[in-house]
Amino acid sequence: MKKIEHIGIAVKNLETSNSLFHKLLGVPSYKTELVESEGVKTAFYKIGEHKIELLEATTLDSPIAKFIEKRGEGIHHIAFEVDNLEAEIKRLKKEGFEIINENPKEGADNKRVVFLHPKSTQGVLVELCQEIILKE
Fold it and tell me: How, if at all, do strands 40-47 and 31-35 pair?
């Protein structure tokens, strides 16, 4: 693993939360994005080398909607950047971690992603992400 890529925060209302985080961090969001496959709209903030991702549910049955219903707004996941997603999946499975989606899927901010089940990571939802290299 290379670094912490971002921390994901589940929010009820992205517009309200963007206003709050803009004031808190002193910088505007650099990107908003709809990720239909996950039923979320996201906003990203960059602070130095680190990023914060705000996630608002766009459907009532999305993972973020279910998370907020159970736990309320707050930290949803921590994401780590990796060089080779498939190699990390193989390594972590061998170490006994449970992978939620073994086939990487397209996530926000130009990343391929997989998630580790919180029951295998002491209650923390972990996302592994790898930059998508665009071919010219």
Answer: antiparallel
